[in-house]
Amino acid sequence: MGAIVAQLLHAALSSATPIALAAFGGMFSYHANVFNIAMEGMMLMGAYYAVYGAYRFGHWLYGMLFALLSGLILAGIFSLFAIVLKVDEFITGIGINMLALGWTTYSLRATFQVKGAFISQSIPAIPKIRFPAIEKVPFLGEVLSSHPFLVFVAIAFAFVCHVVLYRTKFGLRLRATGEEPTAVASVGLSIGRLKLWSAVLCGIFSALAGVYLSLGYVTLFSENMSNGRGWISLAIIILVRGRPMSIMLMSLVFGLLENLGMLLQRYAVPPQFTAMLPYAATLFVLYSYARRLKSA
Amino acid sequence: MLVEMIDICKVYPPNVVALKHVDFSLERGEIHALVGENGAGKSTLMKILSGVVKPSFGEIRVNGQRVQINSPVVAARLGIGMVHQELALVGSLRAYENVVLGSEPSRFGLFQPQKSSQMVKELADKFGLKIDVNAITQELSIAGRQKIEILKQLYRNVDILILDEPTAALTPQESEELFDEMFKLRDRGKTIVFVSHKLDEVLRVSDRITVLRRGEKIATVKNDGNIDAVRLAEMMVGKTIRTTSVKKRRPVGHPVLVVKDLTLISKTSGKKLLDGVNLTVHAGEVVGIAGVEGNGQKELIEVLIGLRKPTSGRIEISGEDVTSFGPRQRRPLMAYVPQDRKNVGLALKATIMENLIMTHHMNPPLKKKWLLDRNVAKSFATQLIRDFEIVCRGPFERVQNLSGGNQQKVVVAREVSLNRRLIVLDQPTRGLDVASTQYLRDQMIALRDSDKAVLLVSADLDELMDLSDRIYVMRSGHIVAELDPQVVDKTVVGYHMLGVSA
Questions:
Q1: Cβ contacts (< 8 Å) between A182 and chain B: which residues?
Q2: Contact criterion met (CB < 8 Å) for A184 and B97
Q3: Topology of domain A2-295, per CATH?
Q4: In this predicted model, what pLDDT tens digit does every residue of A48-62 receive, in sequence order?
Q5: Residues 6 or more apart whose Cβ sits within 8 Å of residue B156
Q6: pTM to 2 decimals?
């Protein structure tokens, strides 16, 4: 039993990482009052270019570099339309998500001459970290050891984002921009520039989530491999009103539910139902949360 | 002279003149009051000085240097800061965070909360502002938030502080505290512009007083005891000769609108917005409501049309008790021309026809089972366009393409054609050109002559004097006077509005 729980938690941590990373990115937009839904597309694009860079140049670092560049480019496109030209943010986000899906599917076929997925032994994965000291500890060792290092980066980012948001000038101004832009503009700060930075951060974090997906979680790229994780991260951001620690926690809950579903499959629960579990749980959480707000 | 504004003009296209050749000056260490009625140009003049609005013409000198003040940031650099009526503060931040926002003390990009809090506290102590700098902004009272705005300016080393009607939303005690703080600021060398139309306050705190009326400067006087509220009110309101007397005195009919002991207490602040209001409007008379804006007129209208439920009291229309009725239930009994024609009175993107048939569409002949009869609607609209001289290309033109005057005619045409016995008009001529204004005034007289009961709320005293058979004056939610414009002078109405005794 203990072994099963440890495996479950190990897997939960693993599934939570891309969701948390993308949510940290979206969190900056959330606080700048930019309704950014492009995490899904940015993540997918990041996943593709991580595989592209790593495979072509033989090192996962190149994968990360390409992924981050793709994230920056998408952030630039988002900023151009949603912030500079003031097109509807939601429409821009949908455009970016569709562009990312089409572009990566096309590129997969044009560059690697495969359909569906590109799998190769020559894709270098991001290194896994092992803690020899903890590994011996039963249970804890099984949960924490041999994860790709981005898992720990994500956990660290929960703290870093908290500091950035609540302890830096940038964070103060960002939160002020989202809540009362006239107050920010009246002291001579540029609202557009702050929103732009929030979009850039969203691009970087979402791309990192993509890197983790295609070089950490698994080592391959498949069409639409982000598979709704960007939307889950959006739901989490809104649910916890953009607080970094809560984002990490909710991502873990979500990761746990996802893997609980897979576990249940072993006990002959039809997979169609187990796959519903995280989403049904999200709806339930939203419902109880809204009820609590209403009664407060 | 610290600041000189010379020959300032401001024209809002196409032809609204907000300021006409106004001169204004400030000396170091004075409290200078700027007084005038609503729309006299006080705020516009100060927005020009603080860089929010650009003047159409004229020159500004600071310390003898000619300057261009293109933005509030430039104004701050010149030592000029304005505290607007609408406070722009971030509610979830602490008071000191709002003060330092934009020029935060920091080390390596890390914001230093302790140091910031300390600095703001020292600043508040230095100028004698009583405030908890660590409080969450949205939990503070309006007076508290106002102090944050003042501190925000002081933090930026402003020498000239413009306070735009700072006491408008304060309790008397809070106002007293503000005045003490203004004196302390002056004693420490700051110059304060106090924009207000509360004459007793102006006389208490200011060193000099500048009076504006309809965009023109009437005078700048020293507050040295030789000036009193009566004289100031005269300068503000002006002594004018009655111009148009289109009305004939008619015998008054039976009461149509009867309001008894109407009281409205704000659920959020507990303030009495309406306090025991009694009024009656008879058939065949125009009754005016006068008062400085924000003294309960808006709330009175909201209660009359059924948007807000009164806390206590009773409203009767044509003998029927409508106190518990919603707006839709009241519609068969009354017509209403709202103040905000663009958002409340009209659907701007809909056609003239669609706007004209609203309310009418609920009854035959426009309503045919579940459908509208388009042909009847079209001929109905065409008829109204002709009757009310609405200048347009046809009934299918969008209302947003019309001029303000013609938009208002659409509203008035719809409401008048409802043929109700009571019609309530809230600022019907505000912002309109002379011709449209005259047209609407003639309409109101015509309504009265056809035995309707007309209730007119207006900020334009001349209009009220010209049109009304009786005038109620509102102040602080009370009806403070009922006057006959045939008998009393405009200045008397002004005294009652401002609360000074002649």
A1: 88
A2: no
A3: ABC transporter involved in vitamin B12 uptake, BtuC (1.10.3470)
A4: 999 999 999 999 999
A5: A187, B76, B81, B103
A6: 0.74
